[in-house]
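Technical note accompanying the year-one report. For the benefit of new consortium partners, we illustrate the data format agreed upon in the data management plan: each record pairs a sequence with a structure-token string. No post-processing was applied to the example shown here.
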Amino acid sequence: MSRTKVDEEEYWHSSKFKAFTFDDDDDELCQLKESKRAVNSLRDIVDDDDDDLERVSWSGEPVGSISWSIKETASSGGPALEGREQLKTRNSLSSYPPLPKPASTYSLSSFFKGRSRLGSFQSLSDALSDVPPKNYAPELRRPKGEYKDYSSDWSLSDTVRRLQKGKVCSLERFRSLQDKLQLLEEAVTIHDGNVITAVLIFLKRTLSKEILFRELEVRQIALRHLIHFLKEIGDQKMLLDLFRYLDRTEELALSQYQEHLNIQDPEKRKEFLKSCIGLPFSVEDAAHVQDHYTLLERQIIIEVNDRHLESSGQTEIFRKHPRKASILNMPLVTTLFYSCFYHYTEPEGTFSSPINLKKTFKIPDKQYVLTALAARAKLRAWQDVDALFTTKNWLGYTKKRAPIGFHRVVEILHKNNAPVQVLQEYIRLVEDVDTKLNLATKFKCHDVVIETYRDLKDRQQLIAYRCKVDKASVEEEKIDGILSSTQIRWKN
């Protein structure tokens, strides 16, 4: 029966199979390969779980079923065996009940068709979401070099070198005293402070103090590293025990004295310093400890008194210049500045008097003058500044004298915004001419410059300086008067 062209086209479009074309990418071979890859991926995902996954053939029939077995036998056997195999199959069907299908809810056809056994539509990603994730990548072995990092079979030199390179290294296998000491000596040999300290920390943790101190006494390099380490971590107790064992009395006393830094309460710190006075310090250190105790004792007295005066508001200096900080635990120079600022005019018999502090703590004249000058110049008390440098000789004549040099006096006064008149007075007292001219020019003290050039009888310098002053100013008139004078014999 002949078919029309339309019927043939309809037949080919509705056919289960697809005609072969060279231009078609989705040919039967490609589909076969993709189907095989999909099946292999499903097999990997479900981990070959025969109980939960139903296996099917390419025809869609479950693998292992009777129909599948018959077809497989028929395809593998010849025509002569076909009748006998069918007969055996019928006999088996009649003698045995039908095999039940697996109770799995998933099948290969349902994955591709997008529905489960129960009939509900389900995508491939949804169907696979119920499968617990597994890591199927093979677990590779670590390189032997990495396992060696955690090994404990190194020699002493290898262990020390690993410590030097900063690698992981356990020292627990060194259990005997001899092994530990050999490890310490090997660390000292390479002259690496970090390695020595690491070994000392291990020895500190695993040895008693007596044994550790005894062995380090004959190993001075390691001993110095341990002392430095204990100071860094602040282990005062073990440091004191070590100095006591080594009979280093001065270092023991200084180490114990340093504990006052951890005491915040002034009264408790004062009592602690008092207990340190009897420690075996050197002569110089013993004097410093005594001065520290005396200074703190006076600071406590001054602080209590000044706090009362400031709160009452009866003292003018505290009203104009309120205190910015407490005087407690301040250095001696700061205490002297504080005393010169707030208690400069007090009699020598009081604890807060600057003269009393100077005599008690034997403050040098230069230090006292520098501190008092800075304090009184800050208050712009120029009369006190003048009195600070005025001295009288045995005949009653007054003279100005500065143990720090008047050039430094001028610089301090200028920092505290002293007026030009005050600066000129002390610049004139500078003995070196070049220094005097430099200071006068720097701080624009014109009168001092003009007078100095006049005294030097340097007409050229005076004429040159005339160009630097303002026109029609008092300084210009003064220079013109000096230049026109006939009483001066100029050098040039």
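Partners are asked to follow this layout when depositing records. Residues 89 and 95 are 10 Å apart (CA to CA).
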